[in-house]
Amino acid sequence: MSLRLILSLALVLAGGAMITQQAMATEVDAALMKTLDPDNDGTVDLAEAKAAGAKMFKELNPDKDGTLDVKELKGRLSEEDLKAADPDDDGTLDENEYMALIEKLFKAADPDNDGTLDKAELESPEGQKLLKLIS
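The structure corresponding to this sequence follows.
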């Protein structure tokens, strides 16, 4: 196989991976906003994000042991991101660690520092990371 063919295949595969990642993006539509924005002001504040996160934590924790491991997170975090969010290095996130990660991601998705996330901020790469944990 020629080097040119190998490079072409690599580019096609890389492009396919990018399409897959884009297809996995969470669409910020009216139904999602209704769920995340109970006060119906068109934005999500930190309290609303944490409330949605607490609900999601419970859904992801069917064994009710109070922690989420990489399997229970179902691809919402990479193993690397889990390790970074796991200060006690036990391989799991308890609810406090999960909430701390939500707060960190919320702040990253709020570049104007107004304390709320609008549709555009939720659709940003940082907002998409947050949405994986709260929706």
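The chain is about 60% helix and 5% strand.
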